[in-house]
Amino acid sequence: MDFTIWQKNTLKFIILGLLKHNELTGYDIKKLFNCEIGDFWQAKHSQIYPELKKLEEEKLISSHIEISGKKLEKTFYNITATGLTTLNNWLTEPQDKIPPTRDDFTLKLYFIDDKNNPRIEELFAEERLQHEEKLNYLTTRMTELFSSTEKQKAHYGHYLILKKAIIREKAQLNWLNDELNNINK
Amino acid sequence: MDFTIWQKNTLKFIILGLLKHNELTGYDIKKLFNCEIGDFWQAKHSQIYPELKKLEEEKLISSHIEISGKKLEKTFYNITATGLTTLNNWLTEPQDKIPPTRDDFTLKLYFIDDKNNPRIEELFAEERLQHEEKLNYLTTRMTELFSSTEKQKAHYGHYLILKKAIIREKAQLNWLNDELNNINK
DNA sequence: CGTATCATGTAACATGTTACATGATTCC
DNA sequence: GGAATCATGTAACATGTTACATGATACG
Questions:
Q1: Does nucleic acid strand D have an atom less than 7 angstroms from the CB of B72?
Q2: Is there a domain that residue B2 lies in?
Q3: Residue B1, domain member (yes or no)
Q4: Is A60 found in the same domain as A19?
Q5: Test mutation, B37, B113, B114, chain A, max A CBs within 10 A
Q6: Which of B7, B41, B44, B137 sees the fewest Cβ atoms within 10 Å?
Q7: What's the pLDDT tens digit per position in B7-19?
Q8: Mean pLDDT split into 10-residue runs, chain A, 185 residues
Q9: R_g of chain B computed on alpha carbons
Q10: What is the pLDDT of residues B40-85, one digit of tens each?
Q11: Is the minimum distance from the CB of B26 to strand C below 7 Å?
């Protein structure tokens, strides 16, 4: 069964999507990957800045410079009409296949294989800690951003993906706890 | 909050892990990515064959050729003692951070954002179909491979990761169905 | 005999990470 | 004045994909 996928310059569409409502600097975009958007994609500044230049060459975004303080130049980017069309086309394209999870934990579990190897319990404990931290972060963000139904409606997609991530983390934690109990029996 | 991860030549350890119990050809390894191992990692043959050569140079694996039929040469690879040590060291290393999901669906949802955009319902329907297919495949594999508790114990890691994937797919499907109901209200 | 699959490889390209670089601003 | 963070960039490298290539074998 073939679950192969592939991403063709996804970063491009993420940038366009982020610029849909606000003008942003490269640094702003970089920082957004540290928030809950980092749950589904990540990129370093060394990839973002060149991509912004490329998008500007392609006329999908435009830029202007503002001076902050005495001489610090910030480059703000805006989406163009062409950029908006490109973004909307991508949004209506059929989806890619489900990508592989690429997580270390599953991989190691698969290769340890021996039920009595004490490393299994360690792995579970480490994994639980990480998911607890993440769930914690996600629920905090949820409270911060979407305390009212009005706020939920105003950024419905954002609300949905946060909710999705929270449900995923909870299911994951339940499973981890169940298996930890099984191991100790 | 920083959830940054990174994989340093994970394919290397996957190959070592797969060779732990059986000798395999590059083609065998390629095919394994089409099974449930493809749930957590994927690689094309164009990446596998060069990696095998590299691992042999590093003396982590060894190879011998067998003739199949009249002249088809198959190269079988075995893990060496050094390879086994390398694999075991990796298994006891602390885990990487949780990687981003990198799925198209979440990304598009985030950028559509408008609750009334009919594309949201389409996206959910497409996504549901994909997860149904995947769950179907995973449960079939589970029945094929782990019908008895003896079989579960014999390949406990494999059993665990299949179970994990099934639980994940079920949770995901529940959420998708719930949200589809919300949309239709 | 034709088609699917087995089996292996390389080259060009795209994507993503690490490290190297530099300088400004804010806040204590 | 020192540290953290703001702000932007490039170069070298690692990883992963697509396309190009070739030939054998199994099965109908």
A1: yes
A2: no
A3: no
A4: yes
A5: B113
A6: B44
A7: 489 999 999 999 9
A8: 55 98 97 95 98 98 95 97 97 92 94 92 95 96 95 93 96 96 82
A9: 21
A10: 999 999 999 999 999 999 999 999 999 998 899 999 999 999 999 9
A11: yes
